[in-house]
Fold adenine phosphoribosyltransferase.
Amino acid sequence: MDLCHVPASREKGWYLALMAPNVKGPNYAWLDPSRLYCHPQGLQDCVADLLQPFQGDAIDMVAGIDAMGFILGAAAAATLRKGFLAIRKAGHLCVQTAAQPYSDYSGREKVMEVRTDAISPGLRILLVDQWVETGGTMRAAIELVERLGGVVAGVAAICMENSEGGRWIQERYKCSHCVPTRLQPRFDQHQ
C-alpha cells in the first residue's frame, strides 16, 4: 500500500480506487475504505468532496454513525470547526439516550442510540456515514435527530446507492457523496 502516491490529476473520486474489495464473504461490506482513510491526501480530498455541496450552509454540528461514520464525521467536523456527535449502536452509551430500531444493509435488526442532551431544538446537523446501501441505518439516524428536535442539514457518505432507501433519503434531504455519475452503476451493483 503506497500512502505517498498522489495522482497528477485528482478528479472527484480518484481515492475510491484505494478501497479494497471484500475477501471474507457475504456477511461483510463489499468494499473496505480503511486504506483510503490511511492515505493523507485521499482522506483530505474525500472530506473536501463530501463537504463541497454544503459550502455556505448553516451547520451547527456533525454527527457520525457507528462505526465507520465516526472517521469521516470527525474529519468533517474538524474541517468545518464544528462539534462532533457519535450516533452509537445500542448499549455503548452510559447516559440518557433515545433509541431507534432499524435493519442494516445485511437485514439484521439492530438499535441505534444517541444521547438526549446533545441535540437541542433547531440544531442543524450534518449526518455522515461511510456508505448508504439500503438506507436503513441512515434513516434511523435521521429519525433520532428529528425526534429530538434537530434539523438534518444534510447527509454525506462516500457512496449513496440507488436503492429504494437511498432514493428516499436523496428525495428528502440535501445529500453529498463521492462516486462520480459514470461510476454509480458499478457501485450500485457492487462491482
Observations:
- Residues 47-180 form a domain with the Rossmann fold fold (CATH 3.40.50.2020).
- The first helix runs from residue 34 to 38.
- Strands lie at 20-21, 31-32, 61-65, 83-89, 97-103, 109-115, 124-132, 151-160, 175-177.
- The chain has a mean pLDDT of 93.
